[in-house]
Amino acid sequence: MEFDGTFGLADVTTEEVWLALSDPVMIKNALPGCQFLVEVDNPDDVDFDALEEAAAEEEDPATLPEADPEEVAERGLAQGGHYAALVQVGVGSVKPRFETVVTIDRREFPEMDASGQGSASDSSFEMDSGMTLVETDDGVDVEWWTEADVFGRVAQMGQRVINPVANRVVGRFFKQVQKELSDVGDESSGLRDRISSYI
Amino acid sequence: MTRDISLTVNGTEHELSVEPRALLISVLRDELDYTGPNVGCESSMCGACTVHLDGEAVKSCTVLAVQADGCDVTTVEGLATDGEFHPIQQGFQEEHGLQCGYCTPGMMMTATELLDRNPDPSEEEIREALEGNLCRCTGYQNIVRAVENAAEKMQQEPAVADGGGD
Amino acid sequence: MGAESESGSGVQSVDPDDVDAADILGSAIERREDPALLTGDAEYTDDIELPGMVHMTIKRSRHAHARIENIDTSEAEAMDGVIEVFTAADIEAPGNLPTGWLLDSLEQVDHPILAEDRVRYQGDALAVVVAEERYIAHDATDRIDVDYDRLGAVTEPSEALADDAPAVHDDASGNVAFDWDIGDAEKTDAAFDDADHVVDLDLENQLLIPNAMEPRAAVAEYNPSNDELAVHMTSQNPHLHRLLMSGVIDHPEHKLQVRAPDVGGGFGSKIHHYADEALVALAAKRHERPVKWTATRTETYLTDAQGRGHDTHAEMALSDDGDILGFRVDTAANLGAYLSTFAPAVPTYLYGTLLSGQYDIPAIYCSVTGAFTNVPPVDAYRGAGRPEASFVVERMIHRAAKEVGMDPAEFRRRNFVEEFPYQTQVAVEYDSGDYEKTLDRALDLLDYDELRERQEAARAEGKYVGVGLSAYIEACGLAPSELAGELGAQAGLWESGLVRFHPSGKVTAYCGTSGHGQGHDTTYAQIVANELGVDYEDVEVVEGDTDEIPQGMGTYGSRSAAVGGSALVKSSQKLVEKAKRIAAHQLEAAPEDIEFENGDFHVAGAPDRSMHIAEIATQAYLAHDMPDDMEPGLEATSFYDPDNFVFPFGLHAAVVEVDPDTGEIDIERYVAVDDVGNQINPKIVEGQIHGGVAQGIGQALYEGAEYDDNGQLVTGSMQDYTVPKAEHIPSMETDSTCTPSPVNPLGVKGVGEAGTIAAPQAVVNAVCDALDVDQIGMPMKAERVWRAANAATDGGEH
């Protein structure tokens, strides 16, 4: 199934959005039900149990505006990089925990493509996604798309159930991003300039 | 880890320990041997598991047993009194309101609640009230007639209407 | 028996105590099976609790088509309460599920009960969990880790037959399971050459999921000291299940008992032999403990054999006068991932042979290609082939009448078969019929002429009213066995019935059919009481247990009354014959001088010299005074093998109003006039019609198994697959005519599937009529109807 949309973020610059959407910590915080999101070396051999344990013990590093933009850029998603995430989503009467691995296939400011797959006990998915940032009069539009194949119990519920869930997850994600970024805008313009310099 | 609960089923009190996630239907069927209510869909769509919880028709496949702690439960086994059929049972028998019978216990529990609320329902009201109870055999026509038949009987003999055991 | 009712208002049932013994056959008596079902005393399979019983679940494929790289059961096996997890690799000889109907060109493929290295539909069985508790078994199933290498999937038959389709089975080239045809191609081509008009339609008969309210279930118990294995299961045919299962799990047939307790509906889905029930039996043997498995609703959606699934191109050749000259049908039939028990018969002999409908069509040719796809096996679902045939015929008739400018009722009348028996161009010979009678009765009920005037007036006001007719025919009681064998059946199609007098004069009747909601206990008792002249209450009926009933073929194809009921008649007649000789002996008269009436044997001309049959039963078991050459006892078994099918028929009509702005359809009236021959119990007949029509309307408006591009079922719950609710089904007006069948001693024809066969095209024709379009696909959901209403009438699928 295919999903796409445009999410408008007000009072932000393309560079700020780029940096935020490249920050695994920010993404993890903004994504509902995401337990952790970390870079891994081998996408075919991920020990999710160990990662979950480690994530539970560690405290999350700061995100913008508190974080140092240099650090954020440093830990940012890299082209060719593999990332593991554990995401629990409520779909109808079930709440599958998806062990997810995502690969950043292309990352060229202001565009990014990623592909990945996730699997839970009775459901799984495979997806290709992309986004483009477009500057607008009052901020930035994030144009995004996803082509997903869904399998198992979740697939059986069909688009009637999956579409609202997808819309809810995406809506919450961008609202949270907007919230965090509006704090960036509140800071002195020095942060904005420093962010631009890392792109 | 279990929790102690008490359920009064068809007038008989039962004390038992249940898992917090145990569904009312499983406890009724597997622990207490009330196998009248049936499991048809596990998703509250079909209504085969319908019982009365403190007089209200509920789908026992979506009620946790612990939620029913301290409640009065009436199952299809509690409809007849002293060997005498409840009017809804008579209605289903006389109007051929059942074929395989799997949906029938739930269907009758929903119908008796309707008749408590609305003693003289129209055909439309009956069909609407039964929207959460699926039947694959009868095409519903004789079920509607069965409910009408029961309504008529209960109006003629109001005393019988109390036979539901709620 | 078989009185024709006067109006469409419905049959009034009566208490059996209020019926004279002589009138019991044909009376609409209340059912004797109801009290247990109304009080919760009924015993469905999942109600069975046995000491020491454990629970089984099945790990199923998430993907519609994949190679299995690894199945890791270690985490599941380590759980507390898990007794065993086994896969194909753990069992010595994983059995293959057999196909019970072979065709010359059939590509037979393996159908293992546990998939080994490849899965072919979402729901294919991969591993079995046996655990102390049901909850634990389900939890453990979720912890089995399967590595899949996903393959391309195909779900539509016409796509599966395309050149670039993924191969479901490596051995079945082009996904072709068989090519089959019937009729005379050359003669049909010639008819088309001579035609004044040719009409054609592309018709899809969508995949349906049976949705019996009771999910499939089995409880097996094994006694190692005598090797006896008992399987209590949701079965429409215990003897057939016993025979097939004994081969699949390699257990001797005589030490295998299959028993169907109360069964909560079947509609075909409980005929077939699935892997699941065999796995329960295997698990019981492995652990020497009773094992229970009950399908979740999700499992029934994924694994119950589905029905229909035809893509058809049909053409009809017509004369200017409105005569049908020829009929050509080409169908791609979806068989699913494997060949289910009777799958090859459904889109061939149960379909092509019915394509003459109620009409005298001089040339017919039908070709069918069976296609493997990545959906669950497709097999018999209520009607099985005959709804597909009737749909094609009646949709084409509707189209043809319009083409030649005739009223659809008059076009039908002009082309009806009038003389019986009638030999069709597609092999079968109709036994009896009177098609004008059901048409006229239905037109009367509809007030057809007035209705057509109202339709025109409504159109002038911008309202879209439509009338759809469906003149259906079905074939029940497939027979005789010799013919079935010639056509590929791997089983006989007789039925057995044992009627046994007890010494006290009470009677038990055993029949090899196996009812699951049809009321056989009542109707068989009516039949036997009538034949023997004993009280209805003195006859007990036993069905559904291989340990009690000699042999049997089961309940499907509307065969029970025609074949099973007739077997009981034959046995009863044998008893009467024997009893007559005992009576003659004891009354000291010649057997030919003994007359039998209402249970009494008396000497002709001396009515006071008489004995009741119950008294003779006592004498037969006392055996103190028997004719010289006669054995004691009074019981008889028959294996009844009919000479022919029986052909019920009728005319169903739907009146709809369609809102072209929203696409919503309102069925204002539904009229059903059926002729099922003599009726044993008119109330039960009426109930069968109601339920059948509801399923047919469900197909027309709501139901359909839909898959995404990966073969994932997206209508896999009762929320997504719309089983019609009370509000969805109109109040039906039913009526009947009676043309007894000459084929069987009861003159009955069968009624279980009639409504389902008749209804879909009545509703589709009505909507097409309302909108004046040639074609709308099923299910006619609002969007589809809206599109049809707002598109040019191009005759294509919308």
UniProtKB/TrEMBL annotation, chain A:
Xref: Pfam families: COXG
SUPFAM superfamilies registered for this protein in UniProt: Bet v1-like
InterPro entries: CO_DH_gsu, START-like_dom_sf
Alphabetical list of Gene3D superfamilies matching this protein: 3.30.530.20
PANTHER family with a match to the protein in the record: BLL0334 PROTEIN
Protein name as catalogued: CoxG family protein
Naturally occurring in which organism (per UniProt): Haloplanus ruber
TrEMBL record, chain B:
Residue ranges occupied by any 2Fe-2S ferredoxin-type domain in the UniProt entry: 3-79
Record SUPFAM superfamilies: 2Fe-2S ferredoxin-like, CO dehydrogenase ISP C-domain like
Claim: Transcription is one of the keywords in the record: no
Keywords: 2Fe-2S, Iron, Iron-sulfur, Metal-binding, Oxidoreductase
Pfam families (alphabetical): Fer2, Fer2_2
CDD domains, per database record: fer2
InterPro entries the UniProt entry points to: 2Fe-2S-bd, 2Fe-2S-bd_dom_sf, 2Fe-2S_ferredoxin-like_sf, 2Fe-2S_ferredoxin-type, Beta-grasp_dom_sf, Diverse_Oxidoreductases
Gene Ontology terms, MF aspect: 2 iron, 2 sulfur cluster binding; metal ion binding; oxidoreductase activity
Protein name: (2Fe-2S)-binding protein
Lineage of origin: Archaea, Methanobacteriati, Methanobacteriota, Stenosarchaea group, Halobacteria
TrEMBL record, chain C:
Polar residues compositional bias, start-end: 1-12
GO molecular function: oxidoreductase activity
Coiled-coil zones: none
Keyword Transport carried by entry: no
Ranges where the Aldehyde oxidase/xanthine dehydrogenase a/b hammerhead domain occurs: 39-152
Keyword line: Molybdenum, Oxidoreductase
Region (Disordered): 1-20
Residue spans crossing the bilayer: none
Name of this protein: Xanthine dehydrogenase family protein molybdopterin-binding subunit
Record carries keyword Oxidoreductase: yes
Species of origin: Haloplanus ruber
